[in-house]
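Tokens in:
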């Protein structure tokens, strides 16, 4: 995947954090008989509630290990979540260009 000319690393990081936030929220609320709370996701993932909150608020992305732990808490294949995250980031990128 090529980065568009003129797009800064900071812009890509912001879009990636926002995409991760949206994807994790969707996974917490969809495709399951019941919702997963922030505290429940933190407990199932073995990460702090403050980290889950910062991901959902698009304030943090974190290291690969924490990403893998979140995938475990969501009972999601890391590759599927990453693919969804990249599609979401491309949608954010497209929407920001149209604005």
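Residues out:
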């Amino acid at each position: 995947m090529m980065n568009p000319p003129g797009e800064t690393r900071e812009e890509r990081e912001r879009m990636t954090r926002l995409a991760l936030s949206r994807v994790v929220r969707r996974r917490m609320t969809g495709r399951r008989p019941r919702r997963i709370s922030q505290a429940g996701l933190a407990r199932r993932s073995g990460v702090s509630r403050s980290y889950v909150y910062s991901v959902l608020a698009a304030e943090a992305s974190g290291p690969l290990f924490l990403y893998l732990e979140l995938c475990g808490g969501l009972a999601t294949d890391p590759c599927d979540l990453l693919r969804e995250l990249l599609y979401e980031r491309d949608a954010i990128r497209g929407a920001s260009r149209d604005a």
